[in-house]
Amino acid sequence: MLRRLSLLVVLPLLASCAAVPGYSPPPFEGSREKNKFTKPLESGEVGPEGRYEMSAAEKAMDCKRLTGSIEITLSRLKDPLVRQEPSAMSSAAQKLSTPLYGGSNKGGDRQAILARERAKLEAYNAELAAKGCKTVDIEAELARPAEPPKKY
User: Cβ(124)–Cβ(70) under 8 Å?
Assistant: First the structure.
């Protein structure tokens, strides 16, 4: 009796996994082309002298979006988990696994990431000043302790 009941439970589960032949969902007809925020933002690059060169998309951002990007980057830099140095074993494992499995090893050098983020903050702040917007005191913001997580 128990075998028959278990069969009745398993059969609908297997039937739900079966694909309907010839069915393909209709294409998404959202407003992707209309909304400029659906496209990923092209990132700039750090030059040889350590200055961040903003991309054309970053230079086209308005004051509100530039300030928001600065605030997000500052909160990420103040996060205690970001400030912790990875163990030597995890750094070595990442450096060894990149040639084996492919991908980028940019995440392996923590100091280079922090230097890039600082250069990006400076470039965004200079762009705010060039546009006549209110700038952010980066040193004072980084010196402030991180806010505890909000409880909703």
Answer: yes
> Please, where are the H alpha helices in the chain?
2-17, 56-59, 63-78, 80-83, 88-101, 110-130, 138-143
Report DSSP state, residue 18: S
- Cα dihedral across residues 140, 127, 61, 56: positive or negative: negative
Say what the pTM is: 0.64
Domain segments of the chain as ranges: 45-144
For 44-88, the pLDDT digits (tens) are: 888 888 888 988 888 988 999 999 999 999 988 887 766 677 777
- Nearest in space to 71 (alpha carbons), one of 142, 149, 129: 142
Give per-residue pLDDT as tens, 95-120.
787 777 777 666 667 778 888 899 99
Cα gap 8→12, rounded to integer Å:
7
Rounded CA separation 103/107 (Å): 10
DSSP-based three-state secondary structure for 25: coil
Contacts of residue 32, Cβ cutoff 8 Å, sequence gap at least 6: 38
Task: Report the alpha-carbon distance of residue 108 to residue 96 in Å, rounded.
Answer: 10
